[in-house]
Every structure is written in structure tokens, then in C-alpha cells.
Amino acid sequence: MEIISYVGGRPDNRQKKLNFNFSTAVKRVKKNFARKRPVAKAVTAAKPYSYENKLNFDEFKIQLRKFLKFEKKFWWILPFAAVLAFIPVGMVKAFNFFENRANPVKLEVAGETEIDIINKEMARFALNSSTEVSEDGSVSGTLVSYSFKQPVTFTTYTVKSGDTISGISKKFGLNNISTIIAVNKIENVRALNAGKKLRIPSVDGLIYKVASGDSIEKIAKKYEVEVADLLDVNDLDTELLTSGAELFIPGAKLDKETLRSAMGDTFINPLKTTSWRLTSRCGWRADPFTGVKQYHPGIDMAISQGTPIYAALSGKVVACGWSNVYGNYAIIDHGNGYQSLYGHMYKKLCKLNEEVTTGSKIGLVGSTGYSTGPHLHFTVYKNGKVVDPLTLIK
């Protein structure tokens, strides 16, 4: 009986006797290896594995020469593209520049009523000043006549809280505040604190220090006083003067610039720059719509929107709000009869009743209210009357 070698096998798949010949196996392996060798050689010839083939410097040099040749021939393409890209940017910047430069400000006729309201509001603050003092230092309400025949005498006075230089002058019967300022060598009246002792002369005048070569006639001519008055007021028996001695000059007063500096009334430019453009002066001008002459209480300073606005002088913010004419505005009371208005602000940076110093940032230039472009409307009042700011700004 035959035995099948595995299940499902055919009858001819009978298990045969194992007959392994080692030499025959070796010959078969060599034959198979010899058959694959030409294929391997062909692959090696096509893509040899070498370092030089990975980094082909010759090919790189060829490509670089081609690029440099192209770049040399078409060098103008890159600058031209940059110019094309700059044109729209430049146009936008130019548009913004001209947009931010205001033309002369034109106020609607309907706004005239509100202009009057704002002006009255300014005048109301201005009239709240303690004592009226003119530009030459004369105190209103006092008009004392002197003979200058009696020797000058001095009284010591201690400054009290709430005192003003004009109030003290009026209290001692002096006509001009420059007398106390000059005699006491006060550099800034605003720095005058309670407790300070002052020398108060019995008559108006200044103290003059005699210089080498001075004579009584020369000094009298300079200050337009009589020689006899100089001798009497200073209780002198001779016209001979000693260099370094002090003479009291009766009736003399400080010049306006020196007085203004001593009063702390030297305003700074509220924009702190010279790049602004004056588009409207202070005074009478023709209405842009009706042609009728109209008073413009201040100056218009055109400059780019967002430019900082500074307090032209130290003081207290007495008004800070909105007006259909001046837009965002602020009014500062500087004392000594001075107030200033800052109008058309883009943004207010000050608060009501805030104490500000000269140069404090109070807002940003804008075009709020009735305005044709970014600018600052700047008004200054002195004792209820408009003062041309251009005469005050340093």
C-alpha cells in the first residue's frame, strides 16, 4: 500500500530519498551570482556613489555665472519695482500732509451766537481777577500825587496768605506795582510766598546803584526827574556821588518787558515748535461767508493733528468742555488778570480745577467744532480785554 506524503498531494508526489550533493549546490550559487553581476555594474555606471556627484561645484558655478549675467543685464528691474511700490505710499503720505494743513478757519454764520457766548465766558473769568493792573504796572483805583520834597521812608511788611502785589501796592498808596518789585528785587511775583518780608517805600520809584562816572545830573536826565527832587528824596546835601551807593529815583518805573518778566507773564509758545502756520491773526477780519467785518479774538495756529498743546503759562483750569464753535476747549486762569483759551482740541488732557505749570501738556491739536483743518485757536485775555497772543509769546 502506498503512503501519501501530505494531505491533498498527488500520487506522484511521493517522498523521495534525500540526496544532498555539496559541490552541486556551490555551482548553482556561483551561477546565480554571475547572472546578477552585470546588472549591478550597469547600475553603478549610471549612478556611481561618490561625494563629488553629490556636491557638483562645476554645475553650481555654471548656474551662478548665468545668474550674474542676468543680474548685470537686468539690474534696473529691482529699483524700478521699488519705485513702483513707493508711489502709492508717497501719495498717501502727501495726501495726509496736505489734509493736515488747515486753511484759514471759516466759522458758520449760525455759530456767531456761540462765539459771543464763549467770549462772554472768557470775559467773565477775566473779570474775576483780583485787582486790575495795566501793562505799565499802574494799579487801577489809585492815583496818589507826590511832591517828592520829603525824604523817602521805608516800612517792613510781611506777606500774608492771599496777598497780591497789586493789593499790597494799593494798601500802601502806591500807584505802580513796579515800585515794590524793583525795591525788593523780586524776580517772579508768582513765587512770592506768605511770610516773606518786603520793604515798602513811602513813594513810587526805583532804587538805582551809582556806577563809576555817574553824576546827579546824568541820572536825573536818564530818568526824567528834577535834580532837586533827587536830592530831597534821598536827603542829600551835595551833588557828589559815591560809586556803589544807592539812590531812590522818585516816580520811576520798570520798563514793560522787565515788568512782564517779573510778573511771570512771559508766555511760551503753546505748541513748543516753530513749524506751525499762522492762518488767522487776532483782530478784525472779513467774515468768509458774509464778507462783513468780524472780530477774531485770538490767533489760529495750523499744524498736524495730534501735536501736543502746552499751557502757555502756569495757572488753574477754570473751564474744560465742549463748544460747537471751539470743539474741545480749555480755559486757564493765570492770575494777574490773565486767562487763555485753547480751542479745537482733538483730545483734552487736563481736568477742571487742575493746577498746571508753564509747559504742562493740556491737550492735542485737532479740528473739532467749526474748523476746516487741524489747528489750535489760542486766545489771551488781560483784565477782560483781548490781548494779541503774538505780543506775549516768547
Descriptive report:
- The chain is an alpha+beta fold and 394 residues long.
- It has helices spanning 22-46, 51-54, 57-73, 77-99, 112-126, 165-171, 178-183, 216-223, 227-233, 256-262, and strands at 154-158, 197-201, 205-209, 246-250, 277-280, 283-286, 293-296, 299-302, 308-310, 315-323, 327-335, 338-348, 355-356, 361-365, 375-382, 385-387.
- Strand 10 (315-323) and strand 11 (327-335) form a beta hairpin.
- The longest helix is centred in the first third of the chain and has 25 residues, at 22-46.
- It is elongated and about 155 Å long.
- The N and C termini lie far apart (137 Å).
- The model is unreliable at 1-18, 42-47, 49-53, 104-111 and 126-130 (pLDDT under 50).
Task: Give the key terms.
single chain; 394 residues; alpha+beta; ten-stranded antiparallel beta sheet; 30% helix; 22% strand; disordered N terminus
